[in-house]
Design brief:
The protein has 301 residues and is of the alpha/beta class. The protein has 2 domains: 206 residues, 3-Layer(aba) Sandwich (Rossmann fold), CATH 3.40.50; 80 residues. Helix content is 27%, strand content 31%. It contains 7 helices and 14 strands. Helix 2 crosses helix 3, helix 2 packs parallel to helix 4 and helix 5 packs across helix 7. The chain is globular, with a radius of gyration of 21 Å.
Length: 301
């Protein structure tokens, strides 16, 4: 239904210049609220153009874009020559997103800390490294908890801890009911987590059918064994949305299976619930579709 969509494209086409070649044409796409959508395609096929149309940065040459909610966008190339410091730019963008100045500065500081860039808060954007600039670009999109988050190669240039933090932020957004659309050159990015995957081919957008093969390796999951208050259900919205399997054992232990990007938030909800849950073990697993045996490493907590 229309009210379940974050944004909808009907018969959308885009070309540059009168009589120019169509980059996209006849695109019909609805992004459901709370969904994670991956866009694939070869270089130059129109992936970035599609994201810019979804974000409202470009207008379609034909067709209609409707239903767009509060949207934030991370571009493929961040304009780092802007006349701001990192904290000044993020505070400004927080105000653009509708936050009060104090709240915008606080959220800016929090996101710089989460991405390991707090030490660059007062550094001019023009003096930041590529990686630090990318952290600022991602932080500006996450400041105000957007309904629709659009990421164009947003992981590129980030160090490993920041990439993991962005994975967690994506999981948080979808668990909270936001929608995320992303392009990334790494085929394993959020593997097994996306609700839908589309491919841009020959100016058209096609829903890709996910077909398991004998060599397919699914994205890592986390098995959490925990003991909670008697009769208690899952303690928070992230856990309720993210948990794939939920089963009990005769000794009162609850076993939860969670995609790895969601695991930190699920564990946090378990441990901060009132009364808290007791986490017994946490095991990361990778499953081969042709062999149910799991390669795993567990940590006793």
């Amino acid at each position: 239904m229309e009210h379940d969509l974050a944004v909808r494209l009907d018969g959308v086409g885009r070309r540059y210049g009168v009589g120019g070649t169509w980059v996209l044409r006849g695109v019909d796409l609805g992004i459901r609220t709370g969904s994670l959508v991956r866009i694939e395609g070869a270089n130059g096929t129109g992936k970035s153009t599609l994201l810019r149309l979804l974000a409202g940065i470009d207008a379609p040459s034909e067709g209609r874009v409707s239903g767009r909610r509060r949207t934030a966008f991370v571009p493929e190339r961040f304009p780092a020559a802007l006349p701001f410091t990192a904290i000044g730019y993020l505070t400004h963008m927080g105000r653009v997103h509708g936050l009060a100045r104090g709240a915008a500065r606080q959220r800016a500081t929090e996101w710089l800390e989460r991405f390991g860039a707090a030490g660059y808060a007062r550094t001019p954007l023009s003096e930041l490294s590529k990686g630090s600039s990318q952290k600022v670009a991602v932080a500006q999109a996450l400041l105000a908890d957007p309904d629709l988050l659009i990421l164009d190669e947003a992981w590129t240039g980030l160090d490993a801890p920041a990439r993991a933090e962005l994975d967690r932020a994506v999981a948080d957004r979808t668990a909270a009911g936001g929608s995320v659309v992303f392009v990334d050159h790494d085929p394993t990015r959020l593997l097994g987590v996306a609700d839908e995957t589309y491919a841009v081919v020959g100016a058209a957008l096609n829903l890709r059918a996910e077909q398991a093969t004998s060599t397919e390796v699914r994205g890592p999951t986390v098995l959490i064994e925990t003991q909670g208050p008697q009769g208690a259900g899952l303690p928070g919205p992230v856990a309720a949305a993210a948990v794939e399997t939920f089963s009990g054992t005769p000794d009162g232990t609850t076993r939860l299976t969670v995609p790895q990007p969601h695991s930190d938030r699920v564990l946090r909800e378990l441990l901060t619930a009132r009364p808290p849950w007791h986490v017994v073990t946490v095991t990361v697993t990778v499953t081969n579709a042709d062999d149910p045996a799991k390669v795993s490493g567990g940590e006793k907590l």
